[in-house]
């Protein structure tokens, strides 16, 4: 049996904390069995290392390993992603597709954020766990698969069970053994080790000399709460590595990269005087944020128009129409037949587009647009951070405030590594 030390080397896991070692030891012990494992721990503590260890030490190691982030897949497509679909099962299902459970037959599937699975998908999952059976979306034929599932969550699933959002029977089916990873603030000795590793990596990546913390800075590093755990530590290490020209980092310098007291967000974006959206700047950000979202919806709509060539907008995607135009009574009468259709569809416009592309002005316009997008993206990040800060990290409340779905917020947190 491989030792904990050897596994840490193989998977580049930094740290000597006893709780971390125990978690790795447990993973080594359960790997040769098919026991179901639930990995728990806050976001950013390195939960994904555990299923990778389990898979590579199991008899399934030559089979496939698929990691699925259940929170990042839209509800409407998750069943098809996991279990596949038949041709014609829904609009756009132009061919039969294998799902992860079919592809990973003989291997391992890691279901991250398992608490985000819709209840209907939970029923299907329970069936696979119980007898290896599943049915593709749009099919009536039962198929068999032999997949080991390792699940993970960073929320307390008992709360979800109490609220009726997670099936209790599924919870127990997924959790024969629980492996918990400690938050970074409980791994005091490891914080500086990890930081040193990250700054060495970034020095290499950005071809700069590595930076060094003085003693006071090391103390602050170890005292800090690191609510975003290793992910947050790595972000801070990257920011300092790139932005600081002086490679000797003092307490004051480090402090300027850490969230101010009582928050867990970088001080550069925190506004101590106001904690709501009442300032002019914030209102502007909110408007920009909404505008970007509208713009994306309009882009989608245009694309669908181009693809479908439909004359009536409402034929295309009623949800999108509803989102863009609201629910006025005359929604169903929106008809672009007279004007925009020709604007989007006719060959003349296409040729125009090509012609513009040859023109230098087009390049300028593109550059400007890219800059705008970057600026908007920065504002979006600030808005999200601010809302999360205001709502004490509660995603549901932040999503409500921002007017986006929790799932979208989740994706954005991942996308921007917040
Ligand atoms: N012990 C470690 N040594 C070095 N890097 C690590 C270690 N643990 C985690 N990391 C890095 O920290 C980041 C966060 O890890 P990971 O994505 O596994 O966290 P997580 O707990 O699954 O978070 P979430 O619940 O948000 O998905 C990753 O980039 C990972 O490579």
TrEMBL record:
Any one Gene Ontology BP term = regulation of DNA-templated transcription
Residue ranges of domain Sigma-54 factor interaction in the record: 13-242
Q: Name one Pfam family in it.
A: HTH_8
Q: Does the keyword Transcription apply?
A: yes
Q: Which SMART domains match?
A: AAA
- Report the CDD domains cross-referenced here: AAA
Named from the GO MF annotations, one term is: sequence-specific DNA binding
In terms of superkingdom, the source organism counts as: Bacteria
What's the protein name? Regulatory protein, Fis family
Its source organism is Flavobacterium saccharophilum
Keywords for this entry? ATP-binding, Nucleotide-binding, Transcription, Transcription regulation
């Amino acid at each position: 049996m491989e030792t904990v030390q050897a596994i840490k080397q193989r998977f580049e896991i930094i740290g000597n904390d006893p709780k971390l070692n125990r978690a790795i030891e447990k993973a080594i012990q359960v790997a040769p069995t098919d026991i179901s494992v639930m990995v728990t721990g806050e976001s950013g503590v390195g939960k994904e290392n555990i299923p990778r260890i389990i898979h590579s030490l199991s008899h399934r190691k030559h089979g496939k390993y698929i990691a699925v982030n259940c929170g990042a897949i839209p509800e409407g497509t998750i069943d098809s992603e996991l279990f596949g679909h038949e041709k014609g099962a829904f609009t756009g299902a132009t061919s039969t597709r294998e799902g992860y459970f079919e592809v990973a037959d003989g291997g391992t599937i890691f279901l991250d954020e398992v608490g985000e699975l819709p209840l209907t998908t939970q029923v299907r999952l329970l069936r696979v766990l119980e007898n290896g059976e599943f049915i593709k979306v749009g099919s009536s034929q039962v198929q068999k698969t032999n997949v080991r599932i390792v699940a993970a969550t960073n929320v307390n699933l008992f709360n979800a069970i109490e609220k009726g959002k997670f099936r209790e029977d599924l919870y127990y089916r997924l959790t024969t053994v629980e492996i918990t990873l400690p938050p970074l603030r409980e791994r005091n000795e490891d914080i500086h080790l990890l930081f040193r590793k990250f700054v060495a990596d970034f020095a290499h990546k950005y071809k700069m000399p590595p930076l060094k913390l003085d003693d006071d800075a090391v103390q602050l590093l170890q005292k800090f709460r690191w609510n975003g755990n290793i992910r947050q530590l790595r972000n801070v290490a990257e920011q300092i590595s790139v932005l600081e020209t002086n490679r000797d980092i003092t307490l004051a310098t480090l402090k300027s990269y850490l969230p101010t007291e009582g928050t867990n967000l970088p001080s550069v974006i925190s506004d101590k005087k106001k904690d709501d959206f009442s300032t002019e700047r914030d209102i502007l950000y909110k408007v920009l944020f909404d505008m970007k979202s509208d713009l994306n919806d309009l882009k989608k709509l245009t694309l669908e128009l181009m693809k479908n060539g439909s004359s009536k907008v409402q034929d295309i995607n009623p949800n999108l129409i509803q989102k863009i135009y609201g629910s006025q009574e005359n929604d169903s009468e929106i008809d672009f037949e007279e004007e925009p259709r020709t604007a989007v569809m006719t060959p003349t416009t296409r040729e125009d587009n090509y012609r513009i592309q040859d023109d230098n002005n087009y390049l300028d316009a593109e550059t400007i647009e890219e800059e705008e997008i970057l600026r908007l993206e920065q504002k979006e990040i600030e808005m999200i951070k601010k809302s999360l800060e205001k709502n004490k990290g509660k995603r549901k409340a932040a999503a409500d405030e921002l007017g986006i779905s929790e799932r979208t917020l989740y994706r954005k947190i991942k996308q921007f590594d917040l």
